[in-house]
Amino acid sequence: MCIPTREDPDPLRSFGGVIAARDVGYDLRSIDMSYLTDRDDVFFHRGLPNGHEVTKMKRMRSGGAIPVLLMVLATVAPPTASAQDEVGARAAVERLFEGMRTADPDLVRSVLAADARFALLDQREGPRTVRTQPVDGWVGAIGTSGGSWNEQIYDLDVKVDGMMASIWAPYTFYLNGEISHCGINSIELLFDAGGWKITQISDTRRADDCPDPHGA
Question: Which of 37, 205, 71, 202 is nearest to 131 (CA)?
Fold first, then answer.
């Protein structure tokens, strides 16, 4: 059984109630609520795997009759990917390119999903085709690049829906301080228990008319 108290329940503060109980398994008939005022709300709180279930009971009197309880159920959801939304997804992508610039493959791997891949257009032989390849070879090469790879991303367009994010990131790639090529990165992310993880990267590449964000 749980007993209502007048303590302010922090996780339930948004409900505006002054009476709260922190457990379940209660029998309403066994709870003494005679000390409550007509305007007191009673909250009963139960922690759930995916949030908190809150039962709100409004106590009303009518001419000294037995109090009537009106019940409203609400769910307080735990923080999800959308709570971190653009900031967290953007930070994961920025760590990826920081790891590239500093030749730190461990930093790069920290934001990659286990099966992260590149999606490419291959037109080396015959008609253009779509193919994918794992990122392992690229990550390994970062460790031997000696800091000569510098891919500057800018004007990011971040879209988030729940635990999925997509980032459109224009870039200019510098090799040993000189512009090599530029284009657009299309980066897909999912939010798991460890945070935002990059699942796929696609890009376009051109060598002409590249902006110079590093020198700007």
Answer: 202
The CA-based angle 87-92-97, given to 5 degrees, is: 125
Tokens encoding 189: 């992310």
- Residues 171 and 142 both lie in one domain: yes
The string of pLDDT tens digits covering residues 22-47 is: 333 434 444 444 544 555 444 444 44
Q: Compute the CA torsion angle 125, 131, 137, 143 (nearest 10 deg).
A: 100
* Enclosing domain of residue 181: 81-203
Task: Tell me, yes or no, whether 212 lies in a domain.
Answer: no
What's the total number of domains in the chain? 2
pTM, to two decimals: 0.61
Pair 140, 105: CB distance under 8 Å: yes
Q: What angle do CA 101, 106, 108 make, to 5 degrees?
A: 50
Same domain, 35 and 95: no
Q: What is the CA radius of gyration of the chain?
A: 28
Decide if 13 contacts 46 (C-beta within 8 A).
Answer: no
